[in-house]
Design goal:
Layout lengths: L1 H13 L1 E4 L5 H14 L4 E2 L18 E4 L9 H17 L6 E9 L5 E4 L9 E8 L12 E4 L5 E4 L6 E5 L5 E3 L6 E9 L3 H7 L1
Antiparallel strand pairs: 1-9, 2-3, 3-4, 4-11, 5-10, 6-9, 6-11, 7-8, 7-10
The chain binds 2-oxoglutaric acid and fe (ii) ion.
Fe (ii) ion binds next to loops.
Amino acid sequence: MEDWLSWMDDISNKDYVIIDHFLREDLYTEIKSFFLGQLPAFTLAGIGALEEHQINTKVRGDFTYWLDRKRDANLEAYWSLLDETMHIFNRYCYLSLSGYEFHLAHYPSGGHYDKHLDQFESRNNRMISMIIYLNDAWQPGDGGELEIFEKDGSSFLVEPLAARCVMFKSAEVPHAVLEAHKSRFSLTGWLLYQPSAMGKFFG
Ligand SMILES: O=C(O)CCC(=O)C(=O)O
Ligand SMILES: [Fe+2]
């Protein structure tokens, strides 16, 4: 719990937090093997809201697999961790989070994602972005760093190391993924003000 409080402090003060070893080893292994098992079902990601469907590999070159709590029930330990995370944000950051949407993402070698914000113009219910990296043997030079832009325009790089978690305020923190030089795996999602189905009505 103490850890959580200092992470909440970070995100309140700086708009982002970077947490190493966020996942327990057994949970990491479970998610990683689920990821590898689903790889054949990944599809090229689009940009924009809802079934997001503008595909533009100049902007973004990752393949994704959207998770579904009912269908992907064997990830229950992960879903409970998300429930706990939401609860803590609501309690200590006074947010009103009530849903989430998550996908697995695979950037093949050469894949990147241009600088962007995670909120869409037509749908602004993404409050917190949450990325967990699943790259076991990431080395300097492998590329695929997350670039985070600070308010003063400066930026810094975050390596996509196994079990590292990055969370930031979706509307506040511009970011990019630099070109990966080998396959780059992550579990990325958003904690929502309203469940995404509602976003369709309010968008
Ligand atoms: O994988 C990352 O480091 C960031 C991905 C991202 O920005 C996104 O999917 O919106
Ligand atoms: Fe993003």
